[in-house]
Amino acid sequence: MKKFFIRLRRLRKGSSLTSIFFRGATASFSIKVLSVGTSFFMQVFLARLLGVEEYGIYVFAMSWMNYFILTGRLGMDMASVRFVASYNAEKKWSLLNGFIKRSTTISLLSSLIVAAAILAVLSFKEVTGSPHLRLTLKISVWLIPVTALILINEERLRALKRIVQSQLPEHIIRPVMLTLGLFIVYFLIGKKIESYTAMTINCIASFLTLFMTLYFFRKALPSEASGAKPEYNMKVWVPVSFSMLLITSLNIFKAKTDVIMVGLITSATDVGIYNATKQLTTIMLFGLVAANTIIGPMVSELYAEKRMKELQKIVTLAARGIVLFTLPIFLLFLFKGEMVLGFFGDKFRQGHLALAIIAVGQLVNAFAGPVGFILTMTGHHFSVTKILGYGVLLNILLNLIFIPRWGINGAAVSHMVSTIFWNVVLAYLSIKRLGIKGTAL
């Protein structure tokens, strides 16, 4: 035991790649644990206050907004991981300052244009049948520019290896503020919470979160960069950001398409139940997300320097950590899923079979490791885009076949099959193109 603590102390204070990964992973994992706890409590609290139908309307609106927020980001968030990390490492301060200024301007203008267009479309009553849904969607439009800027600043902080600051505002502070706002409105003011009320509180919490991310980024940005004369290289930035936009879009599509299709084909009640199962299975993902958060800048640096053995070592370490975290949660959902869903309310227990099915797909996702992220960070983003595109098309096709027959269980099967498909293909591609085995095996 004494030797274990001595080794642990060395990992915490060392300068090796393993030590750097350990410190970053510890901080990221701690944030993710808090994030899962606060998000889960917030979703349960929200579902109980709104009820199944109003909760379904809120989720349906948020799913659409996730699509529209993509157009505001234009891939600049993921491009920031690559360019901010490399420019900072190479001390190219003028290019770093230019990228920050130009990416902010482009994202803000794009998101405002999209928000205005959506408001114009929603002015026609025929667009949505439900007055509550239309009002909720109108309020949620404000999330487009705000969330786009939040996510871009988060990725910039991650590129500068400020792991805690990159995750704290969005994953901890915003859910806490949203939950606190719901508590004040319902219990202290005594106002009934509807879907549009919850969305209004979400917008307020998001504005406050944006100010926090801006503060953290200004503190983290090297003074040499902020004082340098901006230099622009749009010929390089635009193609990369566009490919990143495609990859991020496809990831959002594969995460949210089934929720929207359940809403279009079945009912708001089914959307609420199905989203509760999806929210639970995202807990299985945060080991993968935590690993990606840490290894992103490290993968770019090691690959650029052709240090492939060290890259394989850090990827294997990350992959095994992902599985170690994910497996116990999978077993919990498989055998006690109905009990866990009961926290959302008795009606949500109907989703226990869908929960188990989706969990199988996420377990395969964990065993595959961070293969998609590795390929993206090493210049193979177009191949990743193509594979994810095929996966999304497969998901949509299966949803069209299975949802009318089996409802939310059909959506769960579609999600599982498409998740297994792209993970197997990406794992094979990582070995073939890079010689890097991203799996934990």
Describe this structure in words.
- The mean pLDDT is 85.
- This protein is globular.
- It has helices at residues 2-13, 17-73, 76-89, 93-122, 131-140, 143-159, 163-189, 195-220, 223-226, 234-265, 268-281, 286-304, 308-341, 352-368, 371-377, 381-406, 408-434.
- It is mostly helical.
- The longest helix is centred in the N-terminal third of the chain and has 57 residues, at 17-73.
- It starts with a helix and ends in a 7-residue tail after the last helix.
- The chain folds into two domains: 18-232, no CATH class; 239-441, no CATH class.
Principal-axes geometry comes out as: globular
* Strand-residue proportion: under 5%
Uncertain spans, ≥5 residues at pLDDT below 50?
none
Secondary structure: number of strands:
0
- Indicate the radius of gyration in whole angstroms: 22 Å
List the secondary-structure elements in sequence, H or E.
HHHHHHHHHHHHHHHHH
Largest sheet: none
Domain count: 2
Number of helices: 17
Distance between the termini: 27 Å
- Structural class call reads mainly alpha
Average per-residue pLDDT, rounded, comes to: 85
- The residue fraction in helices comes out at over 70%
